[in-house]
Amino acid sequence: MPSESPLPVFPKYRLLGIWLNALAFTDILCVLKSAIGAKRKIVLANQNLHSVYICSEDPRVRQFFDQAAYTHADGTSLIAVGRLLGLPFRTEHRIGYMDLFPALIPHILEHDWRVFYLGARDEVLQRGISLLKEQHPDLKIAGHHGYFDRQQGSSENLEVIRKINDFRPNLIFVGMGMPTQELWIFDNQDALDADVILHCGALMDYIAGAIPTPPRWLGPIGLEWAFRLVTEPRRLWRRYLLEPIKLLTWLWKTRAK
């Protein structure tokens, strides 16, 4: 029987209409160890300005974040706004998956955690997993591409869930882009046999080299978005150039009401 041991408690703060925990890497590691040790199924979510915008437009995505056990910041802009509002956010509370995943690898290996990755094109997924296994031969990792019929109850969706559960992962990384990954987790988390479910965007594309990885020093100074915009303008121009304006307009109207 799963343990009902309490999970670590971290304060959460209201920011731009969403809830955020001020989590540093050591806090996230504490959450993972506690949930996996107690066999407690949780969702560890992350928010950036793009997801805040989506939450303002899609009630189901907002519900996904509201029911997550913890939500950390994956965006320097959220940290900056939080600090302007007097909230206790610091630079180390901004944690993107291109930094988080490599930092977790030694702990995954130490504790013999099993990892399942759901998402990316099949060729990208296979290349990324092969690279990870070359670098870390003892890493227990499996995956499935993100191009299947994700309709709840469809034969393909049920087969993906069966494959995940047969692997018995401790950590599931779902990387299918926002809001697809969040809605898939929201619809299927009860059927998944895992301890911690995380959503991670294009993480595997970066691991496999399918997308250029931004220099890591750009993140802490808030300019990673500019590198991504230059390298993927057709996919990201709306996210970085239009959504912030729409979000600020929505926030202004909400505050006025």
Radius of gyration, in angstroms, nearest whole number = 18 Å
- Class based on secondary structure composition and strand pairing: alpha/beta
Helix content: 40-55%
List the uncertain runs.
none
- Cα separation of the termini: 48 Å
Summarize the helix and strand pattern as letters.
Answer: EEHEHHEHHEHEHEHEHHH
Strands of the widest sheet, in order across it, are 4-3-8-7-5-6
Domain tally = 1
**Average predicted local confidence, pLDDT:** 89
Number of strands: 8
Largest sheet: 6 strands, parallel
Q: Enumerate how many helices there are, as a single number.
A: 11
Anisotropy-based shape: globular
| Beta-strand residue fraction | 5-15%
What would you note in describing this structure?
- The protein is of the alpha/beta class.
- It has one domain (12-211, 229-256).
- The chain has helices at 25-38, 49-57, 59-67, 76-84, 97-111, 122-135, 155-167, 180-188, 203-208, 224-231, 233-256, and strands at 12-15, 18-21, 42-47, 70-73, 114-119, 140-144, 171-175, 196-199.
- The strands form 2 sheets. It has a 6-stranded parallel β-sheet, sandwiched between helices.
- The longest helix has 24 residues, at 233-256.
- It is globular, with a radius of gyration of 18 Å.
- The chain starts with 11 loop residues before the first strand and ends with a helix.
- The model has no long low-confidence stretch (mean pLDDT 89).
Task: Walk me through the topology.
Elements: E1 12-15, E2 18-21, H1 25-38, E3 42-47, H2 49-57, H3 59-67, E4 70-73, H4 76-84, H5 97-111, E5 114-119, H6 122-135, E6 140-144, H7 155-167, E7 171-175, H8 180-188, E8 196-199, H9 203-208, H10 224-231, H11 233-256
Parallel strand pairs: 3-4, 3-8, 5-6, 5-7, 7-8
Antiparallel strand pairs: 1-2
